[in-house]
Write a structure and sequence with these properties.
By secondary structure, this protein is α+β, with helices and mostly antiparallel strands. The protein has one domain (5-191): Aminopeptidase, CATH 3.40.630. Helices cover 36% and strands 31% of the residues. The chain contains seven helices and seven strands, in the order βααααβββαβαββα. It has helices at residues 12-22, 25-30, 47-51, 55-62, 110-125, 140-148, 177-191; strands spanning 5-8, 67-74, 78-88, 93-100, 130-136, 152-163, 166-176. A seven-stranded mixed β-sheet has the order 1-2-3-4-5-7-6, with helices on both faces. Helix 5 (110-125) runs antiparallel to helix 7. The longest helix is centred in the middle third of the chain and has 16 residues, at 110-125.
Amino acid sequence: MVPDIRLTEVSREDVQRMAHWLEDPEVMALWYGADENGDPLHIGYSPKAILRASDEEWKQTFDDEVRKIFSIYDAHEGHIGEAQMVIEPPLHEAQVFVIIGRKDLWLHHYGSAAMFQLLDIAFSTYKLHRAWVDVPDYNIHALHMCERLGFLLEGHLRSTHPKDGKWYDSLIMGLLEREFSRRRPKLIEQVHTPPA
């Protein structure tokens, strides 16, 4: 099935699913592992904590002007993951993140389709100059996805990602708006081609 992705506002039900997905050892292992108490680590907020948050705390988290958080929905599969963008306005750039929580959809272009949508928002809606990712070196699938979308290796950071009591290196990869615009027609074809 061809991914038909849209990025939407996050609901409490979405966060409940995110918390559930992160309890899975495989999902946790490819994301950021667990903290010293064994609780799954997540970016931008704690799913368990935000589910207990007041409406005001929820709004502060999900209506932030700098950190944009979206739920990833597929037209056929429903809610499948989360996308985030942390904007640095003076630099006209953003760090971008995508997690597909549904393991049965891994390696079927859903992550690529979601990242493509996120990049479209970054470059078209927010008129940014550059997007970048910080990918732990243990997440080989994410590294390959970013390469296919045109991200270029810009650097290697030592011991940046804590995971299960150990520190792992990461790769910094960047994509400029002009590179994305030039590649966009081909990328549309790639992310909308049925998986083999």
